[in-house]
Amino acid sequence: MTSSETISSTSIGLALATSLLMAACGGGGGGSSGDTVTPAPPPTATDQLLSTTVAGYPHAVNVYRTAGAQRAIVLLHGGGGDLNAVAYQVGLNASATGTTPATINWAWLDANKVVLVVPQGQHIVTNPGATTWSNYAMTSGQDDKGFLQALAAKIRNEYGLADVTLMGHSMGGAMTNRMWCESPATFNRYVSLAGPASATFGQPGTPCAPGVAAPPYMGIIGDSDSVMQTAGAWESMTWNVSPTLVRSSIEAWVNPVVLGEFHQQQARVNQACGESLDASGFTTAGNVDTWTSCSGRMVLRRVRGADHGVASLDAQMGTASALDVMDAVMRFAMAH
């Protein structure tokens, strides 16, 4: 643990003091053969909320450190979002405005042996409300690629977790796409929720080129997404981010055109394993159409009737659980 971290614990979990039993005679003879020592029990493993940073970067980071965890998920919020709200949106924090040990869904994290890592996006000086990521669609004014590379290294080195997933919603998903395209080896797998890649990656000079070792990718997006304007445009090469949203934070936008998720998935699949992806080649369960390619490493889920928010995706995925998205992510992570 670094000196920049502060800790809150869900239980006291302190080691008991060592008891020294003295010989019946002789009082305090330290080397007496009559002395016996009862070793202290090890500290009780606990779930902890850590607040930390990465050297050289301004981003605050919340770490939901789960006792006995085997893997980590780094969760990126969308444009204008924050680290508390996005954890709330995916069902892992009971509060949208703050995070304490008491608000965290430790039951899900413990059951899945997951550490959740939630960084705070930054903003440019002239657009303070536009907290985001530098993903070619928007700019935060920061080197977010370098930050995420350093964060992944910190997780592996300091928390001992080799398996790290990058997951983002909306502009966090666009940043996830940037990392998949430009720094594929940084994370073990990538998951985007309603966050297509910037159209910059459709240009000849800046292709999305992770190479033959392209890591697993799963995209989940609604066909009625009012932000990405997906309705009636599923197979389109590009989608346009809602002009109303763009105008609200105009200075932070670099390019409000994104690649259509299905169109880009065709390119991903071809790069990852040389397969082709047909528009009719999906399976259906409830409101979810799923394209599965490359031995399951490349997955695209179209959620029929779902809008942009995680709550809408969850609702339309159609089960009783409030964690439909996270359960899908966990199944994908454990399989690939």
From TrEMBL:
SUPFAM superfamilies for the chain: alpha/beta-Hydrolases
Protein keywords: Hydrolase, Signal
An annotated Gene Ontology molecular function: hydrolase activity
Keyword Hydrolase: yes
Signal peptide (from-to): 1-23
Keyword match Signal: yes
Start and end residues of each AB hydrolase-1 domain: 73-298
A Pfam family hit: Abhydrolase_6
Source organism superkingdom: Bacteria
Cited InterPro entries: AB_hydrolase_1 (IPR000073), AB_hydrolase_fold (IPR029058)
Name this protein carries in UniProt: Alpha/beta fold hydrolase
Organism: Pelomonas cellulosilytica
Taxonomic classification: Bacteria, Pseudomonadati, Pseudomonadota, Betaproteobacteria, Burkholderiales
